[in-house]
Prior knowledge:
mainly alpha; 12 helices
Amino acid sequence: MRKFLILFGREIKSYFYSPVAYVVLCFFLLMMGLALYMGLLFLTAGPTEVTVVEAFFNTVPFWFGFVLIFPLITMRLFAEEFKLGTVEPLMTAPVSDAQVVLSKFFGAVFFYVILCLPTSGFFYVFHLLVKSPISNAPGAYFGAYLMLFLMGTFYLSIGCLASVLTRDQIIAAVISFVVIVTLFLVGVIGFYLPHVTPALREFFNYFSSIEHMADFSKGMIDSRPIAYYLSMTTLMLVLTYQVFQSR
């Protein structure tokens, strides 16, 4: 455990010593602020049953910023180690391959959580300004941020796998971006195909991040998406471990 914590601290320092981290942070918060603005515009357009939580987590700026940050967070994790040659002295240290993979993954998860934490302040300020019981929805907040965390860990694990496959950070970022966007679009197919059977539409909805977020932001906690994201995250980490061992 001590070795893992040392490696974990090394990853955290590498994030905050890099200017890229602060660029990503500013970009993400800018997109989230725009998402909140557009969500509030939608709510003020007229009577609606949509809550501020649903409006925020289902806007175009939110999904654009959300999908784009994962390649930026993960592209350097393994690719930079291979490119600079620092992986050799790292692996001659008394640490296991699993500890290296997990420390890099959880370091990325920690930075991702730091990115998302300021967005919770949006709803707190909104509640203070509105001063209405309807703006205080613990179930919706919990569901939305639970789904945000689950989707984030899955997409970060995809980025880890992409980074371990190459020595070039740009190639790693492109691979993870293409895979994440493809998975995202698969979930959207059911909305745009006019002649889709209910069974096939339900199949596409099972992989739809938009559908998952729409349900969880209402406070509707479903175990199926939780099992899906946890199992796929585990699979991506196992594949990352196997590739890292082979390299």
